[in-house]
Design goal:
heterodimer, A: about 100 residues, mainly alpha, 5 helices, B: about 160 residues, Four Helix Bundle (Hemerythrin (Met), subunit A), about 85% helix
Chain lengths: ~100, ~160
């Protein structure tokens, strides 16, 4: 009998990793552009708004990173449980981190 | 009655946000009781979450860029400046978390979750995260709205 839990699938696992990384990236960029004015100005130049540029960068990163990771063996090395925890913790850290940043900043 | 395009866009933004959140709750409940018959419904509801959140994001982004500056200035001068400094700032960046999760949900739900417990757990986790972040954003939106109301009331009292 095989006691291993069923796998998520390469694409699903790759995009789960990509989602967690993109979500953390989004929070880091949000804090960095507020702390460093020139970065905010640089991000505003391509689309007219730093918020729009950040959103587009997040979406592009999510799909490109997910597609790239799905071509590697990395997602298959992660257990489904660890991927689920990583994504949930990334969302909680990023969400609470954003709120705390704007309370303190 | 004077309904401006700003009002329509803002209300449509909130409506699509609520519909996306409710669709995520629908996915969660279906995934709790997953079986062969509702597997297709889970996939369709997951796609609906993504569509609603994209539309909510486009409408909200358009409103934020084209119409929010007046409200923002009033809120910052009013008695609740934190409605913008904390809640709007958090909301506008928290939205991207929900958007990315909404893009991922149909990908996670694409595999038949009734035959795979790991997929089912991932779908449950992601849909619940979308529900919680969606509810948080609805609450933050209400605080921003109230921040603008108290600012305009304070301004009206000052000009009398």
């Amino acid at each position: 009998m095989n006691g291993d839990p069923p796998k998520l699938g390469r694409t699903s696992a790759a995009f789960a990793l990509s989602a967690a990384i993109t979500i953390l990236f989004n929070t880091v960029v949000a804090c960095a552009k507020d702390a460093y004015g020139p970065l905010k100005a640089l991000m505003a130049s391509p689309s007219g708004s730093d918020w729009t540029t950040q959103g587009l960068a997040d979406v592009i990163l999510f799909f490109l990173l997910g597609a790239a990771l799905s071509k590697t063996s990395l997602p298959e090395k992660c257990t489904p449980k660890s991927l689920t925890y990583f994504l949930a913790v990334a969302v909680m850290v990023a969400g609470v981190g954003l709120f705390v940043w704007y309370v303190l900043y | 009655m004077n309904v401006t395009s700003s009002d329509v866009i803002l209300l449509a933004h909130a409506t699509f946000g609520v519909l996306g959140t409710l669709s995520a709750l629908w996915v969660f409940v279906e995934a709790l009781n997953v079986r062969d018959e509702n597997a297709g419904r889970i996939q369709k509801a997951a796609l609906l979450v993504a569509v609603c959140m994209v539309v909510a994001g486009i409408l909200g982004g358009y409103w934020y860029i084209h119409f929010y500056s007046g409200d923002k200035a009033a809120i910052l001068k009013g008695p609740w400046p934190f409605a913008h400094n904390v809640f709007m700032e958090t909301k506008e960046h928290l939205f991207f978390l929900t958007l990315i999760l909404s893009f991922y949900l149909p990908i996670a739900a694409w595999r038949k979750s009734y035959s795979n417990s790991s997929t089912r757990k991932m779908v449950l986790c992601v849909s619940m995260l979308i529900v919680l972040s969606g509810l948080a954003m609805e609450g933050f939106g209400a605080i921003v709205n109230h921040g603008a109301q108290v600012a305009f009331k304070a301004s009206a009292r000052g000009t009398r």
